[in-house]
Amino acid sequence: MKYYLHIVEIMEKELTVRGNAPLYSFLDIQDCLQICYRRLQELRVLVVKHGFENTAEECRFFKEIKPKVFGKLIFFSKLLEFEMQKPEHSQKALRKYVVKNIGSLRHIFIEYKEFHQYLLCRRKDRDREYFCRPGRPYVTGSLSLPYCSDPVFSTTQDYLSAKFTAHTSLIEYLSQRYIQSNCAAAQKSLLRWTGQKVDLVELVYALQASGLINNGNVGIKDLATALEQLFNVEVGDYYRIFLEIRMRKSNQSKLLDFLKTSLHNRIIEVDG
Prior knowledge:
Layout: H1 2-18, H2 26-50, H3 55-85, H4 91-111, H5 113-120, H6 127-131, H7 146-149, H8 158-188, H9 197-210, H10 220-231, H11 238-246, H12 254-271
């Protein structure tokens, strides 16, 4: 069992170093996916090589250990899909999309309520049925993946255990990042952007290009969303607006030039 626990420990350390939770960038998610996939494959190799000393050990592995690794893989896989499909230019549409996804994620706890209660109550009376091989792998939808249907590395319910873990983490992550944080920002920020939206877009792109935020590891989308929340403004299609900035025949850095002049004048004013 120590071989398997060691893999989980390594994975958790790698994810801690690579990820920036509670705010994962797109690159973080992709890297974390690779880490989880690699560690899951290593678990399978160890299972084939070492097996289990007894039934109790086998049940513990498929009930607790594999779902930790597999659950992380599912978490980052679904998070990547979410980030790729979420609305880009409307906070209202984004919030609606988040709420819809959280509702879908919660459905599994209703659909498989009996088994979820079994795990929550820490019951063991049906562990042999759920977490021992051989047995017909639990298959539905996309579960035709090798690590879901492999008779050497799957039981009837280990995938569902992993999915419970993943969905719980996803609900918490999406709620904190897109709902609670937005509410907090709306309550705390009294700032209002009173300039033109094109000026704010110029600022967003300038900050992102400068590399001064997160050492340059921040996307236009995330930066624009943060400034929209800070200044209580909805910019809209900032990609289109940036195209308009690029098409200016002169003075493409209009806002930055204005800020430079404003700062210079204030220094002269203060110095007398």
